[in-house]
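Hello forum,

I keep getting stuck at the same step: I have a sequence, I want structure tokens, and every attempt I make locally crashes halfway through. Rather than fight my setup again tonight, could one of you with a working pipeline run this one for me? It's a single chain of 554 residues.
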Amino acid sequence: MPVAVASIVPLALSLGFLHVTLGVFFWLPEPSVAALAAPSVDWLVLILGACGAAWLGDKLGGGVRGGARFGRRLGRVLSFAITVWIAACAVLGFGQGFARREFGYDVVVALHVRYVPELFRMMYSGESPGMFVLYCGLLAAALVALFVAIRASLHGVARVAVAPRGRLGLAATAVVYLVVLAPFTGVAGSASKELVQQGLVAISLDKQLEESARKLEAENQRIRPDENPFAEMSDPPSIYLFLIESYGAVTFRSPQLRDQAVPFVGEREEELTGSGYAVRSAYLDAPVFGGSSWMAGGSILCGVSIGEQQAFDSLFVSDAVCFPELFNRAGYRTIESSSASTFLEDDYARTYAFDAFYHYEDFEYAGMGYSWSRVPDQYVINFIHEREVLARDEPRFIYHFLTSSHHPWDHVPPYIDDWDIGDGSDHLSGGGRRFRNRFSGGDEYVPGYWATVQYSMRAVVDYAANMIPEDDALIVILGDHQPREPIADMDGPWWVPVHIASRDHDAVRAFSRFGYEEGMIPPDLAPDDPAEQPEGLHHLMRHIFEAYAEGADG
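Reply #2:
Ran it on my machine without issues. Output:
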């Protein structure tokens, strides 16, 4: 008998839900009506496959003894398997869509799965305990609801496909949907293919990492200078590199930020020049946007462009010689200061080759946690100053990865003017500025972001101008990537500001050959002009080595 009219609405809802679930992989990165309406290969195969399976079930049930019972059991097994498959496609689609929309790169499940706990830590640090529990509960409920909704939708389609006319109607619906929409929207593709590809990547991951490692080694060899000028110096300068989280070009290119940034940065410039420093600034092109700071850090330290997770993991199976090792060979004490890191992997220590690693527990911080970063940047700088700078009389390369300006920009630590910070239990157990921002969203992103950048920049410049003991030390202040949307636009340039300062004016002047201009305001470049595109972030250390090599030659 024909499909009852009363079943049309639930059937339409089932078909629509399955269509959206299987198409989320393709429309979530760039949501639009056309992308949402585009028929996906998976949806078409599912509908036509349901019709074919129902027809085969009729044949088995009518012509084979016990066929009806077998058909029901097979149907239950297939229904469960297809539910799991569609749910996996949906979860991958949401993850991939989020990564493409927020960071501009693809998820590799085999590599990114270990970052899932970090996502929960970020949410926990950016929300109250109650809201964190609520979000976790909602996430669990959403996954259960997704599974149940998929099962119900499949059951609704199967119920209609039992009748011959129902099968005909379903098949006709799929064909008409394809014929009518495809000319306007195209076909969305297959999330199943992406899911299979993820599995193949996982199976051959070691081989792919080895292949990527060889490419990184070649790039590292090209970027790394043939001569090490610091190894030839009898008294090489200490180098302090301050990487400020999310400090991007939007600070100077966005009208709402530039009007505040220019006078503030001008004051920081006066503070440095008043202390005898020469200052030059430029932009460099970051390989990532909105996050994935570990890739930006690897690019800086090893002179290779790392814009995807596979390249980052390949770095640690490669034989690339990173710049901390070159400083080691020149007699430096090399130090990594990263209070947001919670553990040290052997491959990480081998590749980056710092003499000392300071991570979260090493800082002995007893104050309150401030947003995701927890340990304030000023405390971090002061701790390393007391433990390393004042305690040792030798040239040093210090890599500070500062994180107080990390998303969600909701709580700025109080600034301690006299730097009498101690373990943080007295001066850093409250206070600071708060903004109505959370990990999941907020309405004060721009002012919160700018306030955290001001805090970090103030700490760095104050420290450089008044506390660094060496007269010839090189100070490098830069960002790792642009802040996430809506502060910066992923379609805009991914540049970050870089400031070079030293009381050795000749050394700073040597950076002019790489496009660094006087002052702390980076040059006004045109993003659409190929001739004005800055070099990649991975060229920073080459600039430093070649600038000092030029000074030695001169």
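The chain has 20 helices and twelve strands. If your local run keeps crashing, start a new thread with the error log.
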